[in-house]
Amino acid sequence: MDDKKCLSMNDLHFSYTPNEEILKGMTLEIDERSTAIIGQNGAGKTTFVKLLKGLLRPTSGTIQFEGKDLSEFTVAQIARHIGMVFQNPNDQIFKNKVIDEIMFGPLKIGMSEQEAMDSANEAMEMLGLTELKDENPYDLGLSTRKLVAIASILAMKTQVIILDEPTIAQDYAGKEKIKEVIRRLRQQNRTVITIIHDMDFVADTFERAIVFANGKVILDGTTREVFAQKEVLEQAYLEQPNVTKLCYGLGYDKVFLTTDEFIQEAQKQIER
Amino acid sequence: MAGIIVKNIKYKYPATDRLALDDISFTVEPGEFIGIIGRNGSGKSTLCQAIAGLVPNFYKGAYGGSILVDDLVVKDTEISDLCKRVGIVFQNPFNQVTGSKMTVYEEIAFGLENLGIPKPEMIQRIDDAMELLDISRFKDRNPFDLSGGQMQRMAIASIIAMKPDVMILDEPTSQLDPQGREEVFQAVHKLSQQGITIFMVEHNMEKIAEYSSRVILLDDGKLVALDTPGKIFSRMDLPEYGVTEPAFTTICKGLHLKCKNTDEYPVTLKEAEEVFRVYQSQKEENRNG
């Protein structure tokens, strides 16, 4: 399938205060590949996605969504196309029941009661929340509340889904669920953009990685290309995934991203 | 310096039927760095809150057994007294920020003011804690204007400044970038070397393996094991408890490569590299001879 340009940014600048520029001229295209945005705390990642969502407007430069200028959309219009799961679920959740929380967004963007219910049920099934639908989200642990926040955005069936640190507080099973959600969204040709600090998860899940540093893009490519750049990553206060670190430590030529890849290759060498 | 003795702790949250902690006993020496692992809902955070006295003195509920921090019986000690000895960094920094202070500096000072620390010492402690966590440049910012990662560092700094004998950290690095995470682990490791007893809940198994002296594995409120990282992560039944070993260990388990002279798999990058080198040189020797 062709990688259709979904979002494109041209010379994007943004400042919260006149003296400090957070984004310093970003030109970038987001296609249908699952994309991880990585970078040091304060590199401008969350600010960048808030601009895509229309929660902030650029100081200068343009953002286009499917060829149309995003500045011509209201925040409510953007919400029909671009969904964003906040880093802290407490910033997002306010209903007393999980099902009401997940149906809130779909109803607000014009789905019928039945459509919203079906969509919420599908999202809850994807994240293993079906049995919790009548619970109060605030009676759930942080990790489960995070899954509720993700489900409430998935249910809106937007073309673009932005996840801000989805794996925080997740154990192995929680991360596997999120990984599966990202893969299913990709199969449905929906664009997933994720801010994340967990390099092992990025290596295992995403097709593309974009490295932010000081409000600029310093590296952009497939995860394998990006994680091969040890020195550049270190300059951005990042590190390689653990499997890749072992490749480098052993002086291997190839860059492995997952434990399975490493084991398969090592077994071949052992058999030789 | 404080050791911890946990004896047959059982605990149920109010209005629940399930034991969140189910007959847990263990002893920890002063200055140990204890990693706590287990799937979500296994009792990790509840155990932290029990050591800090919030269970049962704040959360109430049914409680049995005892926890001793040196000579203090946690259940019978006022939180206001216990917090001088035991500091806890919450999982979500938003839950820890007082909301009453306008700057990061004042927020870190809050705990010290309540302990009655003299002003010159307070200033020194705040400066040291901010430097350790690399947040000095944010000292005049409103805590709620910080990013999640910055707020997490501030929450850790505000506890470090109180200089507790025991420090409990519940997933303290989840919102930090890799380098920030490494810095926090190094800072906490330094504190343990100074004799401060550390309990840290963490899902990053590589860091737990690298820094912990021993690891507690919990499941369904029960203590499954308390042992060295090498012993814990060499277990083959970890998936049953919803946890994985470090990536290096997974690889070495897959290739049946164990550390020399032990029956354990490597758990750190350094150990894994060593095992591979030994294996390669043995292979060379076999080929040549």
Key structural traits:
heterodimer; A: 272 residues; alpha/beta; Rossmann fold; 6-stranded mixed β-sheet; 4-stranded antiparallel β-sheet; B: 289 residues; 39% helix
Strand order of the largest sheet of chain A: 6-7-8-3-9-10
The tally of strands of chain A reads: 10
Total helical elements of chain A: 11
Average pLDDT of chain A, to the nearest integer? 92
Distance between the termini of chain B: 56 Å
Which radius of gyration of chain A do the C-alpha atoms yield?
A: 19 Å
Number of strands of chain B: 10
Tell me the number of helical segments of chain B per DSSP (H or I, 4 or more residues long): 11
Biggest sheet of chain B, strands in spatial order?
6-7-8-3-9-10
Topology:
The complex is a heterodimer of chains A (272) and B (289).
Chain A: E1 7-17, E2 20-30, E3 35-39, H1 45-52, E4 60-65, E5 68-69, H2 75-79, E6 82-85, H3 98-108, H4 113-126, H5 142-154, E7 160-164, H6 172-187, E8 191-195, H7 199-205, E9 208-213, E10 216-222, H8 223-227, H9 230-235, H10 242-249, H11 259-271
Parallel strand pairs in A: 3-8, 3-9, 6-7, 7-8
Antiparallel strand pairs in A: 1-2, 1-4, 4-5, 9-10
Helix pairs in contact in A: 3-4, 3-5, 4-5
Chain B: E1 4-12, E2 21-28, E3 33-37, H1 44-51, H2 54-57, E4 62-69, E5 72-73, H3 79-82, E6 86-89, H4 104-115, H5 119-132, H6 148-160, E7 166-170, H7 178-193, E8 197-201, H8 205-211, E9 214-219, E10 222-227, H9 229-234, H10 247-254, H11 269-288
Parallel strand pairs in B: 3-8, 3-9, 6-7, 7-8
Antiparallel strand pairs in B: 1-2, 1-4, 4-5, 9-10
Helix pairs in contact in B: 4-6, 5-6
